[in-house]
Protein: Sodium:proton antiporter
Amino acid sequence: MRKVTVYSLLLLLGLILSQWLPLNFGDSYTSLNPVIVYLTMAALSYIMIEVGYEFDIDKNRLGQYKWDYVVAMTAATFPWLFVVLYFVFVLAPAESWGSFDTWKEMLLLGRFAAPTSAGVLFTMLAAAGLGATWLFKKARVLAIFDDLDTVLLMIPLSIMMAGLTWQMMVMIALIIVMLTVGYQKMRALAIPSSWKWMLFYAFIIATASKSILLISTAIDPSTPIHIEVLLPAFLLGCMIKTSAHGHSADQAKANTVISAVFMILVGLNMPLMNFDLVSSGDASQDWNMILTHVFFVTVISNIGKMFPLLCYRKEASVRERLALSIGMFPRGEVGAGVLIISLGYGVGGVALTIAMLSLTLNLLLTGVFIMAVKRLLNTQDQEVVELSRNPEPA
Structure:
C-alpha cells in the first residue's frame, strides 16, 4: 500500500498548491493554468489509452454488458439526483423550489458528484495490487460506462443552459462517430504500443481536444465544443492491436511516473475556493453550517454510488460487491471540470462552495477508500483460506 500512500500525498500536495499558488502568484499562475489543464488532459489520455489497451470485450456476448451499463448509469445518476435534491430543498429558499432557473442551475451544479474518476480509480487500484481481481475488471467496465454516461448527460444539461445549438449537434455527431469507429476497429490498429508512443498519442488527443475547444470558443464563446479526452483515448487503446508479450518493465515504470504526475495535476486543477462566504450575500451561513452541508453532500453522493452492492450476486460475494461500490467513490478531474463549466454559466453562491469542498474531501479520502477496498478483499481471502483448512462438518 506504499504506492497508494504516495499517490494520496501527491494528490494532497496538488490540492494545497491549487489554493496557495493563485493567492501568492496571481496573474503569473493564471497564465500558467491552461498549461496545467493541458498536461492533465495529456496524462489522463495516457492512462485511458492504457486502460483501453488492457480492456477486453467479447463482441459475441454484447448482451452481458447491458446490465453493466445499467449499473454504471445508476452510479452516475443517483449521486447527481441526491445532491440536486439536497441543493434545492436544503440550500435554496422555499419560494424558489418551483423555479425552473433554480432546478436548471442545481441540475448542472450537482453533476460534479456523478462521475467516478476513472484515471484516479485505475491508478490507485493498480497501485494497491488489485489489477488481477474481479473487482478491478468490473470497476474498469463500470467506470468507463459511468464517464460515458456523464459525457452524454452533460449534453442535455448544456442545451438547457445555452439552448440547442450547432455546437451541441457537432458534439453528438463526434461522439457517435468515435463510438462507431472504436467498435468496428477494435484491436485492428497495428501501431506501436510502447510507453513513448502511447504518450505521443496522448498528447495528440489532448492537443486535438484543446484545439477544438479554442476554435469553437473563438467562433462562439457562449457555447464551446468541449470533447473530453476520456472517450477518444479509451477507444484508441481498444483499437490498438495488443502484443503477445505484454508490457515491458520500462513501460511499468513509465506508467508509475505518469500516474504520479497525474495525481499532482488533478489536485492542481481544483478551482480556487471562495472562502469569503459573508460577501457572497448569505451571511447566515457560518462555517460550522457549511462544513455540515459538505459532510452530508459527500455522504449522500457516495450512498448514490452503492447500487452495485445490490447487483452481481451470482458473480461475487457481499464483500466484493461492497468493495466495488466503495471503489466507485473517488472523484477527480471530471467533477472539477463540471464545476468549472458551472462557473462559466454563471452558477455560484454557497452551493458552489459546498460542491468544491465536497469534491476536495472526496479527493482527500481516495487513499482511505482504496485501503478499505484492499482490507475487504484481504479479509475475504483470509476467510476462504480458513474455511479450506477447517471445512464445516458434513
Observations:
- Confidence is low (pLDDT under 50) at residues 384-389.
- The longest helix spans residues 134-162.
- The radius of gyration is 21 Å.
